[in-house]
Design goal:
heterodimer, A: 305 residues, mainly alpha, ABC transporter involved in vitamin B12 uptake, BtuC, two-stranded antiparallel sheet, two-stranded antiparallel ribbon, B: 422 residues, 2 domains, 4 strands
Chain lengths: 305, 422
């Protein structure tokens, strides 16, 4: 059944891209859930994460280390540390002074921050794209003859994403800090009154979001082996679409939204042609915000005076 | 608010470390492609020293923050701008007078400036026009539109396509381009304006990108990534500004018996741009004193109160969106006529961000502020090449800093208001 095999392949590709969207989307959804702002600079944090991954991989390779496992671990660690620093600093510099005012003011500040980060990388690392060879070449054939296959890299993406999601869910559900996060998202003022340092919790959500974006950045940059300073914008918009799709503010929603968006994009590109792949995401975003702004798992928001 | 439980030394150390973690990996290490291999090299020693200096400065700043703040307070103050002066500067009547002076300067400018200077001034005027248009949407009505460049693109492509396929002239196409952009604004705005502010921003961003991607991919109609070239320049009542007139037309210099000068064309384009800006200023000035203009500002301040007073938010928002879009359409068709070549890459999100930076820096809602911001922000990168590389970096930083220190902009305009005497 060639038709079915084709669709199965699309599904696998879509899910693997979608799971990385889900990782980035968590950064949007957690920040939105707590302080109700769209962290427009999140896509740039992802972009910086992929640069750090490349720097770590290329740097260690220059030192003569060629074990793929070691390089990958180094890329994860370096990228997560640096993006966490970025997440924290961005919140501190550009958002904390603006909290609690008109909604548009932090959004404009976030757009400014995103432009700053993108151009900083552009100036420091120049505008040409950089590439590395595929670290995990090869694939499993799921159907005899290779009609449906899943590459080692895709398996790696699924495994890492799954681990990260389980880790996050356990952290939010079980740990003390996770409970504080949920309390702050529920009612910031009340949590503050009950002795939770909400400033630290807000900073923590930025750090978690940035670290998960770094995980996605390492996975995607290793899979495609190509980065440039402009990739943050599109990745950011798509992850935001995923967050809205699942219901912004909801963490399981972001996970679901990422997967749905990845699959929708894979099938959309198949139907309309590859050049319209990005239009699929944008159109989905527009339609979604028009007809179901609360997303799949979101709660309707009541506007208060 | 601050981390009172931590010792200042610990905080200072942490902050310095943070500066290093943020700056060193991105700025201090550079990826270079050598052959097929990717290598990492250190940046120049100057950069590394600068990063270290920043970290040390951060350390001491955090350590002595309280003391510095106290010293700052006891330090002799610079004489502040007296309240009277800042009051006069923000009064609508003063601002209107300053605008008048600027118009007189702008009218005299092309006859004294060099060819290059007039050309740059034309570019400035395009941004003034775009800034004034976006100012209606963002500044007056308080709707953050991140896809404004989409309407600019619609205007530009309307003229380019009509001229390319049907041979229509600039003056016929100018109103059509404005109408087309307004129509797009209306059609796109109708469904999205029910959305809350930040969602609206993202949806408009999506629309702007969709328009650009469509223009790039509809190759048969729009020429795809190569765009449309050889777009006709405007004429003056059928008089062409070229050296040799095309079939059935006369040239300007022949008609008036002058010798041919290429600067005439540049000056003519400049004057058209100025005319468009004056038209925009006139219309907007009328509009903000009409009920609809007052409603825009009221809606920006408090949507719920507006609804309670029986104003229809959708109609008000839609009018602001549509009128703002039509000015982008005018600017777009003029841009196409001036450049002679347009490609979809002229209409990226960055362009929207530049226009937004102009509106934000000038003071949302203030026309004089927007004009001055457009002049400064467009001129600076043109004047110094070194600055041009850092242009977007500075624009971005400006947006962040303006939101923190002066969200009302550098030169806001006073609203008609009454103060209650206590």
């Amino acid at each position: 059944m060639p038709e079915l095999n084709h669709y199965l392949q699309l599904l696998i590709d879509g899910l693997s891209v979608g799971s990385t969207y889900a990782l980035i989307a968590i950064g949007y959804t957690m920040v939105y859930g707590i302080i109700g702002m769209i962290n427009f600079a999140h896509g740039e944090v992802y972009m910086i994460g992929s640069y750090i991954a490349f720097i770590a991989i290329a740097g260690l390779a220059m030192l003569g280390i060629d074990s793929v496992a070691l390089l990958t671990i180094a890329a994860f660690v370096a990228s997560m540390i640096v993006t966490s620093a970025y997440g924290y600093s961005i919140e501190r510099v550009a958002y904390r002074p603006l909290r609690g005012g008109n909604r548009l003011i932090p959004l404009i500040s976030a757009i400014g921050m995103s432009i700053v980060l993108q151009n900083m990388v552009l100036l420091a690392q120049d505008s040409r794209g950089k590439s590395i060879p595929d670290p995990l070449p090869g694939k499993f054939d799921l159907v005899a003859g290779g009609a449906v296959s899943i590459s080692y890299m895709q398996v790696f993406i699924f495994v890492i994403t799954f681990v990260a999601m389980i880790g996050l869910t356990l952290f939010i559900a079980r740990s003390r800090l996770g409970r504080a996060c949920r309390a702050t998202a529920e009612d910031l003022k009340m949590a503050n009154l009950l002795g939770i340092n909400t400033n630290n919790i807000i900073a923590l959500t930025f750090v978690i979001g940035a670290a998960l974006a770094a995980v996605a950045a390492v996975l995607i940059s290793m899979r495609y082996g190509f980065i440039n300073p402009n990739l943050g914008f599109l990745a950011g918009i798509k992850a935001f679409t995923a967050a809205v799709l699942g219901g912004i503010g909801s963490i399981p929603g972001a996970m679901l939204g990422g997967l749905v968006l990845g699959v929708a994009e894979a099938f959309g590109a198949d139907v309309f042609g590859d050049q319209y792949k990005d239009v699929v995401a944008f159109t989905l975003l527009v339609l979604l915000l028009l007809f179901r702004p609360t997303g799949i798992l979101g709660r309707p928001e009541v506007e208060k005076v | 608010m601050s981390q009172t439980t931590h010792s200042p030394l610990k905080t200072a150390f942490f902050s310095a470390l943070l500066v290093l973690a943020v700056a060193y990996p991105v700025l201090g290490l550079k990826l270079t492609t050598v052959g097929i291999k990717l290598q990492v090299h250190g940046a120049s020693p100057a950069t590394l020293w600068a990063i270290a200096a920043c970290a040390v400065a951060m350390f001491f700043w955090q350590l002595f923050r309280d003391r510095l703040a106290r010293a700052w307070q006891s330090a002799p103050r610079l004489p502040k701008i007296p309240a009277r002066v800042s009051n006069t500067l923000t009064l609508p009547s003063t601002q209107r007078r300053v605008i008048m002076v600027l118009i007189v300067i702008a009218l005299a400018w092309p006859f004294f400036g060099s060819r290059g200077a007039v050309d740059i001034a034309t570019l400035v005027l395009i941004y003034v026009l775009l800034g004034l248009g976006l100012n209606i949407v963002v500044g007056l009505a308080g709707l953050l539109d991140l896809g404004y460049v989409g309407f600019y693109a619609v205007g530009a492509y309307s003229y380019a396509l009509l001229s390319h396929y049907y041979g229509l002239g600039f003056w016929t196409c100018l109103p059509i381009a404005g109408l087309m952009a307004a129509l797009f604004g209306f059609v796109l705005g109708f469904p999205v304006l029910r959305l809350r502010g930040d969602y609206l921003a993202i949806v408009t961003l999506g629309f702007g990108e969709i328009i650009r991607i469509l223009l790039r991919n509809m190759t048969e109609l729009t020429g795809g990534p190569n765009g449309i070239s050889n777009i006709d320049k405007p004429s003056l009542f059928g008089l062409s500004f070229d050296r040799v007139a095309p079939e059935g037309m006369q040239t300007f210099h022949e008609f008036f018996g002058l010798s041919y000068q290429s600067i005439n064309k540049v000056i003519f384009l400049y004057l058209i741009a100025l005319l468009l800006v004056l038209f925009a200023l006139f219309v907007i000035n009328r509009l903000i004193r009409m009920p609809i203009g007052r409603a825009w500002e009221a809606l920006r301040e408090d949507e719920i109160a507006c609804r309670a007073l029986g104003l229809n938010p959708t109609v008000i928002k839609l009018s602001a969106f549509t009128i703002g879009a039509s000015f982008a359409g005018f600017a777009g068709s003029f841009f196409a006529a001036r450049q002679g070549l347009i490609t979809p890459e002229s209409f990226t999100f960055i362009e929207s961000a530049i226009i937004l930076a102009i509106v934000v820096a000038g003071g949302m809602g203030s026309q004089l502020g927007v004009i001055l911001a457009a002049v400064v922000l467009t001129l600076l990168p043109e004047l110094t090449r070194e600055f041009a590389d850092y242009r977007m970096l500075i624009f971005g930083a400006l947006m962040v800093l303006m939101m923190i220190w002066r969200p009302q902009g550098l030169l806001p305009m006073q609203r008609p208001h009454l103060e209650l005497k206590q």
